[in-house]
Amino acid sequence: MQVGSETGQAGWQDAEVAAASIPDKRLQRRLRRLLEQLSAAPGKPVPAACGDWAATKAAYRFFDNPRVTEHGVLSGHFAATAARSKASEGPILILQDTTEFIYSRESPGKIGFTKTINAGRYKAGQPNTRTLCGVLMHSSLAVTTSGTPLGLAAVKFWTRSKFKGTAAIKRLVNQTRVPIETKESYRWLENLRQSIALMGSPERCVHVGDRESDIYELFCLAQDLGTRFLVRVQTNRLAEPPTEAAPTDAAHRVFAQLAAVPWSGRHQVAIGGEDHEIAFLQIKFASVKTLPPIGKQKRYAPQTLFYIHALEVDPPSDRDPIDWRLVTNLPVDDLAAAIEKLDWYALRWKIEVFHKVMKSGCRAEDAKLQTAERLVKLLALITVVSWRIFWITMSARAQPLAKPETVLTPAEIETLDRIDAARSRPRIMRRTVATYLLQIAMLGGYLARTRDPPPGNMVVWRGLTKLQDIAFGIAIGSTRRCG
């Protein structure tokens, strides 16, 4: 017996599966039921979340059904993300990143491989190189400029039949001359295209990526689709020298032109954990006409892009200094615009936090399914559960005075009210998102001391799990039998 069905929870799950492209009504009901079960027990194995053998067997049949795909499972969530994005104001940041889910299996070939690692040396001295079994996931997370995660706009899962290290490939192939469509990095372009098709407002979207997304083809695709990007630079690309510059070799590189620009000003950012260490950055920016790689100049045209360089002043000795070079096709004409782009890029870490919720909170790497086809469908469901935990946590920070109904279900609010009514000194004095989230976090072990930072995702998912257990107990206690 599960909490959602017994308490009459008007599920948030309905909005996330309403538009799911599942081919059968029975499978649609099973998808709704599985999402309800996994969200009521985040981090627990499938049998524990389902509660009995019949429900567990039904879940396994769902994951094994060839008519069910990971995209079909997530299509309803994608549609809900688009709706939330349209209801929000301002630019939408599409954060892209890749993560790996590592598994240990007796038959790793049924899942695939992610990478090779150096596991030390054998006693005889030979190197011990080990190939890890697992699934890779490339996500595009839509967030507001205040940091509220609206949901996923695109996801790609894949595995490798055999992993080849990039260093070995570079010795054999000039990567700049290989068509992007034949490389794994093509996923960045695929997710960009899928996100734009979903959102329908390319001019509002800003695609944010780390140095792995420094791909000239991505810049050209964004230009063709009428959308924006903000990427951390990895490659010192070819550039067209300014007309007033001397035709030296240095002038033909982006970094040299950016280095010749004077610093425009300073900006301070909060970094670190609870202490919120303040770092001071000096900032410069420049517009540079950037050329495509030599091997691709017949296919792609030059682009005028804006580069921003932020370098930390007097960094502490116990860590590396902040040194960001960013590139964008958004206009950067003054210091305020450069600072705005830096603040947007600083939100990129949120997709890494989202992946951490999947692994540490929902324990996605503890799944016992034996094939990649089954695992990716389970991972798709865990993705939605993890987003909801992240969404509740960040919504309370972005809009603390909003009504609790904006993120919590009536059943969750009612359970928290009943818990509070049973206390000798009630804690809920204001009906706000922040107040109710605090009660959930305290159920998960948050101490709420004066100088404690805001509740994080881990205490929230633990609190939500305990809240579901309490709601289940209340449902049982309210059932009376007459005889």
UniProtKB/TrEMBL annotation:
One Pfam short name: Tnp_DNA_bind
SUPFAM superfamilies hit by this protein: Ribonuclease H-like
Native species: Methylocystis rosea
Keyword Nucleotide-binding listed: no
Top-level taxonomy: Bacteria, Pseudomonadati, Pseudomonadota, Alphaproteobacteria, Hyphomicrobiales
The keyword Heme is annotated on this UniProt entry: no
Gene3D superfamilies: Tn5 transposase, domain 1, Transferase Inhibitor Protein From Tn5, Chain, Transposase Inhibitor Protein From Tn5, Chain A, domain 1
All copies of domain Transposase Tn5-like N-terminal, residue ranges: 10-68
InterPro entries: RNaseH-like_sf, TN5-like_N_sf, Tn5_transposase, Tn5p-like, Transposase_Tn5-like_C, Transposase_Tn5-like_N
Alphabetized UniProt keyword annotations: Plasmid
Protein known as: IS4 family transposase
